[in-house]
Amino acid sequence: MASALPSNVKRLQRRSPAASPFEIEQVWVDRAVESHPGAIRMLSKLGGVPCEVVDDPALLKHRGSLSEAKRQLLLTAHRGGAFKPCQGITREHLCCNYRVIDLVSGCPMDCSYCILQSYLANNPITTVYVNTEAILSSIASFLDENRDRFFRIGTGELSDSLALDGITEHASVLVPFFASRRNALLELKTKTASVDHLLSLNHRGNTVISWSVNTEEVIASDERGTAPLAERIAAAKRAAQAGFGVGFHFDPIILTGGAKDMDGYLEVADRILAEIDPRSIAWVSLGCLRYPPELAPLAEGRFPGTRIFSGELVPAGKKMRYLRFIRQEALASLWNRLAEKLTARKIYLCMETAAVWSKIEPSVTSNACIERRLCNAESISSADDR
Amino acid sequence: MLLQYLPLSNLNLADDSFRITYAPRLNSLKRSIRTVGLISPINVRHTPEGTYQIVTGYKRTLVLQELGRQSVPALVHEPADLSPTQAFLWNLHDNAITRQLNLIEKSTAIVKLSHFYSMSEEDLVKQFLPLLEEEPSYKILHNLLSLANLTEPMKNHVVMSDLALSSAARIAEFSPSTQQSLLPVLAHIRPSTNKLNELLSLIREISARDGCTVEEILSRYQLLQVVADVNTAPTDKLRALRQALRGLRLPQLSERQKQLASLIDSLNLPESAKLSADPYFENQKMKLEYQFSQPEELTHLINKIQEAFSRQQWHQIFDWYRA
Fold first, then answer.
1. Which of A181, A375, B79, B296 has most Cβ atoms within 10 angstroms of its Cβ?
2. Which residues of chain A neighbour B250 with C-beta distances below 8 Å?
3. Whether pLDDT at A11 is above 50
């Protein structure tokens, strides 16, 4: 199956210092991209990591230890549609018509609640797509064909946007690409604090760097390998000072003790709003824990001490969710707290039902409403922020 | 191999190296031996130490012992002619192809093949699970292996109550002391597999959420008393236990469901009318079902609905449901 890489590639590997804070133990390279400049560039960042070329990367797809798979990388080309509507867009929820780019599939961080544990169970090796030029070309065509519409596009659906950026350098390609577009915003969504390499990029206001946030307790107990809350907020402050729009995703909100657990989230909101100028905040999303039923046994098997599934979670559509009344109360309290300092148009609920929206922001009745609010929010003047 | 009549006292019954039999039912065999005698000799392995290990025929030996016989016809194999692995496989095939093995016997077979005879997981799944009449699945393999964690009384309960593998495996996740506490509760109910799995999940989840032991939960909420009443029908006991556990695990949901039931009752609809809603309050739609064969029955329903409307009760339900 495998053969050694050309000697010049290995020589390059040995020269470079480690480019990722995550321990990568094995790299697989799809023979089809062996000579791709992207693959060669990424390999040069992976100093000394054992590397093998594979003729058929599909052979690497099998159910196995996710923890081991997270320490492996496969460099290959995306052969399907890497640019697509967010999977959250379903008939059961109101969604923001977000679109996603899959440049990496899999994440070196290890959050107990991560959907990728079940979603990528049969293909757990972290996969990096090196054919970014082809992917960006398809996005450019799409944006050109839809000049009359505005799109929010992110890379953080199947991975953390920045966790592997020291190796992939995707952000330094994406930010200038979106800087040149008139009808799209890029969102780089992360739980790292690694933004300093982006701060000098010319983004022309078209990139939002956003952070998934949680309480310090949840971060400590269930978000392995992520940056502490204070570091995330500090990184957001640096990004905002560099002129980037910043975003925050209170997601997943975990309510083991019911809506009274919201105190911790209100405190996080206060800390963010105390540190970050609301005018720099492009959007804030709120989403309570939801997951397909098969995730819980997988996650509890991997993390026996986790308590994240202890709340009052009930079947709702194809997922488990907190009882609607609990979600309403929890989301309303956080929404109201944020709205004290931030224009409400910048706040949205992620994958929430029309029924819950109607209790929190009755004017939102469709996906288009959310999309409109968020796209406008970006250009809202400072006078809108209290 | 030599056919010999061995004194029963020469057989080492405590040596279970090749045995998978658990909780054997001997009555039919006893009747048979009493009637026509022992038809087939047992197989034993003569050890270098001079003892005899039973390879096949453990149940026959037990019956002969119970019947007070002194000797047993046995085919005696020398160690060089029959390796321990061969001996175990003889026993396994002798049992698996002639009768339905219970879960503990299947588990014992798999555990021994894995731990003592070093069979790979792949071989166990592909070769041995089909022999045990199980699907060749790794999940089933791991569940069977997990049953080794059951206490002896719980193993006995699993066999006597004919529990499903999924339920037994869930019980095996509990510590021995927890299993000991659960046993009296389980002994009083006979739930379906789905119901039992739900009960076990509820117990485990309450314990994890509240940070207390299962024993504490059983005692704090007097759950044993819920099922121990001899005057209560088994289905009622099960319903009461499930309701109690769901109330503890999902208190707000249970309370809301009670409130909705009470509001629906207050509508005073005809008996055959059934107003239902999503039990989890997610879907906003309600459903009213009514069966009737006469126009008067329909009129009766309409009148009842109108009465409830005039008392504002429908609005009350909608307002409450959509709150």
1. A375
2. 312, 314, 323
3. no
- Chain A CB contacts of B253 under 8 Å are 312, 314, 323
Give me the domains of chain A, ranges plus CATH numbers.
2-76 (no CATH), 83-119+129-375 (3.80.30.30)
- For B256, nearest residue in chain A (alpha carbons): A325
For B82, counting Cβ atoms within 10 Å of its Cβ (0-12 exposed, 13-18 middle, 19+ buried), the class is buried
Tell me how far CA of residue A232 lies from CA of A109, A193, A268, in angstroms.
15, 5, 11
Q: How many helices (H) and strands (E) does chain B have?
A: 17, 6
Using a CB-CB cut-off of 8 Å, the residues of chain B touching A309 are: 205
Shortest distance, CA A33 to any CA of chain B (angstroms)? 34
A330: which 2 tokens? 């929890």
Within 208-227 of B, beta carbons closer than 8 Å to A belong to 208-209
Mean pLDDT value across chain A: 89
Burial class (CB in 10 A: 0-12, 13-18, 19+), A252: buried
pLDDT single digits (tens) B224-267: 888 888 888 888 999 999 999 999 999 999 999 999 999 999 99
- Distance (Å) from the C-alpha of residue A336 to the closest C-alpha of chain B? 18
Q: What is the DSSP string of A217-268?
A: HHHHHHEETPPPHHHHHHHHHHHHHTT-EEEEEEEEE--TT-GGGHHHHHHH
Identify whether the C-beta of residue A110 lies closer than 8 Å to the C-beta of residue A70: yes
Answer yes or no: are the C-beta atoms of A155 and A175 closer than 8 Å: no
- The DSSP symbol for A5 reads P
* Strands, E assignment, chain B: 2-7, 42-46, 52-56, 71-77, 274-277, 286-289
pLDDT at A242: 95
Is B96 in contact with B131 (CB distance < 8 Å)? yes
Task: Give me the residue from A309, A310, A312 closest to B252, CB to CB.
Answer: A312
| Confidence label for A21 from pLDDT (cuts 50, 70 and 90) | low
pLDDT of residue A377: 52
pLDDT given for residue A246 in this prediction? 97
Burial B259-297, CB ≥16 within 10 A → b, else e: ebeebbeebebbeebebebbebbbbeeeeeebeeeeeee
| Inter-chain CB proximity B323 and A325 less than 8 Å | yes
Distance (Å, whole) CA A22 – CA A282: 29
**C-beta separation of A84 from A342 below 8 A:** no
pLDDT at A386 over 60: no
Confidence of residue A6 (pLDDT cuts 50, 70, 90): very low
